[in-house]
Prior knowledge:
By secondary structure, chain A is of the alpha/beta class. Helix content of chain A is about 25%, strand content about 15%. In chain A, the strands form six sheets. In chain A, strands 8-18-17-15-14-11-10-9 form an eight-stranded parallel beta sheet. In chain A, strands 1-4 form a two-stranded antiparallel sheet. The longest helix of chain A is centred in the last third of the chain and has 26 residues. By secondary structure, chain B is an alpha/beta fold. Chain B folds into two domains: about 70 residues, Alpha-Beta Plaits, CATH 3.30.70; about 280 residues, Aldolase class I (TIM Barrel), CATH 3.20.20.70. At the A-B interface, strand 13, helix 8, strand 16, helix 9 and helix 10 of A face helix 3, strand 4, strand 5, helix 11 and helix 13 of B.
Amino acid sequence: MANPKKVIALPxxxxxxxxxxxxxxxRFRNPLSKYRVYxxxxxxxxxxxxxxxxxxxVFTKAGKYLRKPKSYLCLGFECQKKPFYCxxxxxxxxxxxxxxxxxxxxxxxxxNGDLLLSTWWQxxxxxxxxxxxEYRTGGSGGGFDRLRxxxxxxxxxxxxxxxxxxxxxxxxxxxxxxPQIRVGVPWYGGGMSFGSVSINTIISRVQxxxxxxxxxxTGEGGYPEELYPYDxxxxxxxxxxxxxxxxxxxxxxxxxxxxxxxxxxPGLGGHLLGDKVTPAVARMRESVTGSALxxxxxxxxxxxxxxxxxxxxxxxxxxxxxxxSVKVSTPTxxxxxxxGSYYAGAHVVQLDGSYGGTGAAPDIAKKNIAMPxxxxxxxxxxxxxxxxIREEVTLVASGGIRSAxxxxxxxxxGADLVQIGTADLVALECLRCHNCESGxxxxxxxxTTDPELVDLMTISYGAARISNLYYAWxxxxxxxxxxxxxxxxxxxxxxxxxxxxxxxxxKAVDDDVRERA
Amino acid sequence: xxxxxxxxxxxxxxxxSPLAKSTIIxxxxxxxxxxxxxxxxxxxxxxxxxxxxxxxFVDTIDEMCRDxxxxxxxxxxxxxxKAANPQYRQMGDAYWTPEILATTWYQAETGKIxxxxxxxxxxxxxxxxxxxxxxxxxxxxxxRDGIHGREYISTSVDLGRKPMFLTFDSNGELTWPSPPLxxxxxxxxxxxxxxxxxxxxxQDIIIQAAGNLETLAIxxxxxxxxxxxxxAARLMPSYTAGSLDLDDPLLSxxxxxxxxxHPEVLEQIEAVxxxxxxxxxxxxxxADGKVVERVAELTAAxxxxxxxxxxxxxxxxxxxxxxxxxxxxxxxxxxxxxxxLRDTVTxxxxxxxxxxxxxxxxxxxxxxxxxVDLPLLLALECRLCRSCAKGGKCPVEIETLTVKxxxxxxxxxxxxxxxxxxxxxxxxxxxxxxxxxxEVGRAMFIEDLEKEIFAPLFxxxxxxTIKREPN
Lengths: 517, 471
């Protein structure tokens, strides 16, 4: 049954204390897996040998009774070489290990089955899987998925201790007298509005953000009262519809995010599905019943950098202690847009690619409009450098950052830090069915506001899962930096020399950071 | 401003259960008969509503399933699985993928733009039309809100020869009659697919849809039956060198026709024009190795409309097989620009245009309008098994489909496509599809992005041997 399991976990870590992973298993009874361990009930003689042999805990006993094998813990076909391989050792030949039929149905090109499974693993345990499930890249065949780090050979004992490596990033680089925000990790949570995701999801994200001293954006959908206790970790968004934007919400936060465009629907406004265009709505909007509608795009008060500056000045006036972030998509002249935003007074320029988003977006827009984020980052980074203003802008990449390796690659391409969204949802056991927008919303209780579905997930579970993922990511980033001989994430910015692209490199490269047995 | 062009879409449910990407497998053996079965908790109640489609031997649960995996993950005995559906993967071919088929069916059923949550999950890039991205506007350039209807985006195109200048006599009158011009409200012309279970029915469906959409239907003259006068205006019959008979009474009712290119085609056109001066003649030219030269030559000789046709997979023909239609269009367009003749002629393209974005992208590469054929057959639930081409039975019984129903599905598909064209143009800030033509500056080609951005960073780099040995 699909009832959420209660998690014995502290909801949040007391301020200042680093998060330690808390084992937070799947909410659903059978965790999805790459391999399936099958035990024939008729052949099994209940000798318990498998329980003794398997070091991964696939087999467990309850008294004399053997529990159902925990397939997701199984090492898979690699185990055939091991002396403790259960299938070979079972005296009754009652065991089989095969690829799970479900595995081939999981995910898509960007978030393939492996990346989903490894992210779920990290969210459950706070470390990397020991199996052959890929945790660094997906299967899109380009961009991040073709970039690799080139680590120098490991020298015994030369590795930098994790405690000596810093992941912190300052967001205010303008030196304009406004307060500094230093985030503890090189990422923060991207805007997912109340409405697109449940309040439990939002609070889970912000609690994890608090645990790692970073931020979460509200998205365009208002600032629910439940978030007031977390004001210092919130970014509030001002978007074209101005939904839920009030003076007092703008004054609560340390950073305000202007959304000019979003990567999932570049150049388009919000999308109201045809089902929701009732005769009354259609009459109001002078449109046709049942035809999909689009909310305004762009800001009709902004058609120049001067207008843009006016907007930013207005926000700065309303909240004198806030930093201003500008979220844009990736057109041909994305570099000019970034420079314009700097001169308009933005502290943070955020480039949003098309691989993210929970809301409904036309497939044609996601696939075809605007350039991939992987090209936009170095283009903007180099242009800002040539303009002599790179040091004063904080460059954020978003819309397609799925793993710790994506974070590191985006930074090596030229970003200062990244924004993430979907990865948080995957930590909550999203399996990317792409149905977030339809009907009652997410059937797994993540991206929905349906009361019954929202109850599928508790905040303590959500906060722990996301925090575990963040812990695993921090560990990997430190490992990457350590292997590269860097002591701070700041030293990685723009270091494309540490990356290779498989299209241009013909030797075998392995940037696995796990210590292999 | 002309009245807003609107395509009237209307839901037309499929007659056959569409094949689903994955399928539910549930075993009865070992079932514990739990007090509350996971099947009862299905969020879309698929287990209660499931049926069995006897005509196709499929369980209808798969078309209702929304892939939440709650039953798979909830059953205490792990008796429920989801597995990839081999029937789905086997549909179509490498170019006409199952995904193209499924999205075409959806649009033909609903007339709606396909929309989904959770970002783009497809490959980074691909060949042909998947190797470039279209531009958008933000902050410093306005976008256009076309679909919402607050701003008017014109999708009209003209078919015909356009003189570069006019000459007037001493009375201020034009010294020669202006050539005929045909305005279509959308840059999409419908054409008969190369095969269909019921070719006659397919023609009727295309004629009716073309009439409703106010566009043209390209049909082979050989297979065309008697034509009522009111439909003749919507026809663009296709002729080969020998099949064009100047005494054919149909010619006097037509506004336009198409002739397959042949060595004496210019003389033949002249003869047609002498007798029927109001007829617009389109020349159908294969996208082979000589296409650029031929297009330039015909345009210089005064061609009004040229239809460049490529293979079903949007590849060139003959010695141009390695080239994609998009590159062939770009070459023809550029050549005509260099010859300072581009604006005089209308370029139509066909072959492998499978998705809504292909319309916008073919136009960006330099076409004035596109000709769509196979997707019209797919709109009728065709699974591209090509059984009909070999004289076999159609699994979705297209021969029994009524013209009205079929035409509405075609209208729905083109309605959804046209709305998607508006989206692409709106994001770019374009107000007219005429201005989209050849606007490669508002597109981003992967070869250019690689050359400008990735190659300087990653190509020919002196990498020291600091690589870790793979263990």
